[in-house]
């Protein structure tokens, strides 16, 4: 048995008897996901550093904290993949959608001379946090970003503080659904070669895992208003971002071959049938998913001396995706 990262779309289609389908059709299953991801990746990458105060003040004001949040893509974004491949996914995905989780450490520092502040963030999923996922779901990601905000209006009383800012984010991630099929055995006729290998053999696919993955570079702009009401700091804002992204997916599988343990030979066989496997050590099909996101967000901070707890929700106009985030920090 050999664990490989392989685009097993054609193998899976053979296993289920869908001979009429081609690799291009398999790739097409992921196009809807790719486009939905294009609309939501920029807003997901914006999580972290979204603190309730529209402006934290000039240096030496600063803060450091942890943000937890993410977006949920509608289930329709992966439904073509699930239906096309005839696989099953956990009911949680059908009910709530596809989670794009974010956990990030973030910090802000007040600027000099001009009324501005800058923020940085860095995030990944710790191994301990992965243990909280369902046994059928795996997820991972990396997030880095920075931004700067300029105060436009200084708040007083019911007059809000208003700021505008811009930033850059990079995020990559994966979402896997384990054991989407019990596995299949495929009879294949291998042409005889010079070494005498050939004849009828079996290719065995065991417990394939369905995987989605994405990465994005985003440029974003935001405008935010906040009110300082003693123990509360409510806020509302609008964000826009353009992402230069890739998104796609494929199947991971454990493969065994009853003939010579040579996946290159298997690749040549399927290629001769007109069902090419692009590479024996690939990972998935993917496509560019460049696109805009426009969202509104709002929430409030609960201020307990220098400890701040932020709760915020967001909504993406283009995809209908929704999300939420929480931040706890020390801010001076």
Can you summarize this structure?
The protein is an alpha+beta fold and 332 residues long. The protein has six helices and 13 strands.
Written description of the protein model:
The chain has 332 residues and is α+β, with helices and mostly antiparallel strands. The protein has one domain: Lipocalin. It is built from 6 helices and 13 strands. The chain has helices at 9-15, 23-45, 79-85, 91-96, 127-130, 263-272, and strands at residues 2-4, 62-73, 98-110, 116-124, 137-153, 161-177, 184-190, 199-226, 232-257, 285-288, 291-304, 307-316, 322-331. A 10-stranded antiparallel barrel has the order 2-3-4-5-6-8-9-11-12-13. α2 (23-45) runs antiparallel to α3 (79-85). It is elongated. Mean pLDDT is 77; it is low at 1-21 and 278-283.
Number of E-state strands: 13
Distance between the terminal alpha carbons, to the nearest Å?
Answer: 58 Å
Query: What summary fits the major beta sheet?
Result: 10 strands, antiparallel, barrel
Tell me the helix content: 10-25%
Structural class: alpha+beta
Total individual domains: 1
CATH architecture: Beta Barrel
Strand order of the largest sheet: 2-3-4-5-6-8-9-11-12-13
Instruction: Provide the β-strand percentage band.
Output: over 45%
Total of DSSP H or I helical runs spanning 4+ residues: 6
| Mean pLDDT, all residues | 77
Form type? elongated
Order of helices and strands: EHHEHHEEHEEEEEHEEEE
CATH topology: Lipocalin
Poorly predicted spans: 1-21, 278-283
CATH top level is: Mainly Beta
Oligomeric state of shown chains: single chain
- Rg over CA atoms, rounded to whole Å, is 24 Å
């Amino acid at each position: 048995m050999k664990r490989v990262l392989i685009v097993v779309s054609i193998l899976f289609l053979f296993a289920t008897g869908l001979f009429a389908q081609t690799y291009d059709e398999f790739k097409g299953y992921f196009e809807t996901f790719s486009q939905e991801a294009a609309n939501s990746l920029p807003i997901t990458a914006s999580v972290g550093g979204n603190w309730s105060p529209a402006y934290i003040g000039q240096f030496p004001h600063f803060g450091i904290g942890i943000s937890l949040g993410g977006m949920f893509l509608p289930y329709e974004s992966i439904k073509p993949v699930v239906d096309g491949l005839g696989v099953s996914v956990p009911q949680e995905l059908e009910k709530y959608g596809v989670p794009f989780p974010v956990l990030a450490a973030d910090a802000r520092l007040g600027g000099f001379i001009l009324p501005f502040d800058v923020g940085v963030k860095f995030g990944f999923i710790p191994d301990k946090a992965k243990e909280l996922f369902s046994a059928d779901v795996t997820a991972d990601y990396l997030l880095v970003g920075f931004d700067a905000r300029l105060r436009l209006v200084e708040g007083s009383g019911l007059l809000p503080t208003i700021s505008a800012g811009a930033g850059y984010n990079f995020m990559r991630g994966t979402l896997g659904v384990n054991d989407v099929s019990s596995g299949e055995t495929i009879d294949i006729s291998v042409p005889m070669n010079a070494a005498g290998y050939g004849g009828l053999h079996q290719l065995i696919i065991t417990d394939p895992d369905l995987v989605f993955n994405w990465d994005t570079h985003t440029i974003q702009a935001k405008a935010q208003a906040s009110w300082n009401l003693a123990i509360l700091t409510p806020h509302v804002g609008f964000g826009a971002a353009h992402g230069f992204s890739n998104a796609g997916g494929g199947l991971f599988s454990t493969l065994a071959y009853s003939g010579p343990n040579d996946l290159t030979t298997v690749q040549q066989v399927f290629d001769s049938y007109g069902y090419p496997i692009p590479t024996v050590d690939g990972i998935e099909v993917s496509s560019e998913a460049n696109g805009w996101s426009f969202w509104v967000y709002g929430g409030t901070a609960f201020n307990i001396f220098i400890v701040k707890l932020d709760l915020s929700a967001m909504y993406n106009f283009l995809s209908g995706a929704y999300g939420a985030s929480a931040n706890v920090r020390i801010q001076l």
